[in-house]
Each structure stands twice: as C-alpha cells, then as structure tokens.
Design goal:
Blueprint: H1 2-35, H2 39-50, H3 56-63, H4 67-79, E1 83-87, E2 95-99, H5 101-109, H6 117-123, H7 127-143
Antiparallel strand pairs: 1-2
Helix pairs in contact: 2-5, 3-4
C-alpha cells in the first residue's frame, strides 16, 4: 500500500505540470485566434505601449528573452506595421519603438493578461512561496537526464 502511494505522488505532480502547460498553450491559442499574433508578440506590444520609445535591449530585458529573439519579434511586427521605429532626436543612433493604431486596437481586444497566464500566476505568489518553488524546480531540473540550458531563454509560446 505504501509503495502505491509513493508511485501516485509523482503522477499527481506530473498532472499539475500538464495542467500548467496545457493551460498556457490554450491561452496562447486564444490570443492567436483573437489577435492574429503570438502571445509573445502581444506581450511585446503591451511593453511598448507602457514605455513608447523603448529600444530592443530594454524590451528583451523586460520580457526575459535574448536580444536577438526580441529583435526578430520586432522585425516581424514592423513588417506588419504594428510597430514603428523612430529615431531619437537626441541620439540618432538610438531607435525607439512605438505602436501603430492597429496595434493599439489589437491590445484593446486581446484576451488578458498580455504577459501570459503563468507570469501572472507567479507574480501573485508570495516571495516565500516563489523561493520554495524555485528551489524545488531546481531539484527537478537537476534530475533531468537531458537538459539544454538555452531552452530557459525561449518564450513559452515557442515551446
């Protein structure tokens, strides 16, 4: 009987991972259906709306993604004329980003939260709970036979 309980606990935890992953995927699908852009692109638009004129490096830091990934996202949005590049008057080398009217409309009709449901849920946790979760997930990732640290920089919408 004790052996059966030991086997059930990892499966219960696995189900929670499935629930999280499935819910995140479902949210991203809803974003794409409603907005025609990816969840990460929506988050990027939201961050540009918060600070018009922000550059790619600043946005990459705020989204916790690699600068080259952010640059590619910005290019895709610029091609679709959702993001406009504006040169700084003070420093002509600096290019800031602003939203087009179409992008503003997309943000208004987008299902929230723009940053995604997992970042929102994590932000709602106390620091103590997050610290414990971080330590526990470090233990889990330490047990993985195959692990690519670079994957941690990929947006969830790309997994």
């Amino acid at each position: 009987m004790a052996r059966r309980k030991e086997q059930q606990l990892p499966l219960r935890v696995l189900k929670k991972f499935r629930l999280i992953y499935g819910s995140v995927r479902q949210h991203f699908r809803r974003v794409e259906e409603n907005c025609g852009i990816s969840g990460l692109q929506l988050w990027l638009l939201q961050e540009i709306a918060k600070t018009p004129g922000a550059g790619v490096s600043e946005l990459a830091d705020r989204l916790f993604i690699h600068q080259s990934t952010c640059s590619q996202l910005v290019e895709k949005l610029a091609v679709r004329r959702l993001v406009l590049k504006k040169r700084s008057k003070e420093d002509l080398r600096r290019v800031g980003l602003v939203l087009s009217a179409t992008a503003k409309e997309i943000l208004q009709r987008a299902p929230g939260p723009a940053e995604g449901i997992l970042p929102e849920a994590l932000s709602a946790l106390s620091e103590d709970v997050l610290t414990d979760l971080d330590a526990s997930l470090s233990e889990v990732t330490g047990q993985l036979r195959v692990r690519d640290e670079k994957l941690s920089e990929n947006p969830l919408s790309d997994l």
